[in-house]
Amino acid sequence: MQRNYVIFICNYDPFGKGRCFYRFENVCVDDPSLKLKDDSVKIMINPYGNDTKQFGKGFAALMDFLKNGQISDTYTESLKDEITEVKVSEEWRRRYMKLLIRDQENIELGKEVGKELGELSTCVRQVKTNMEQFSASQLASLLGFDQLTIEEISESIKAHPDWSNEKIATELLEERNKHNNTDES
Question: Highest taxon of the source (predicted)?
Answer without folding.
Answer: Bacteria
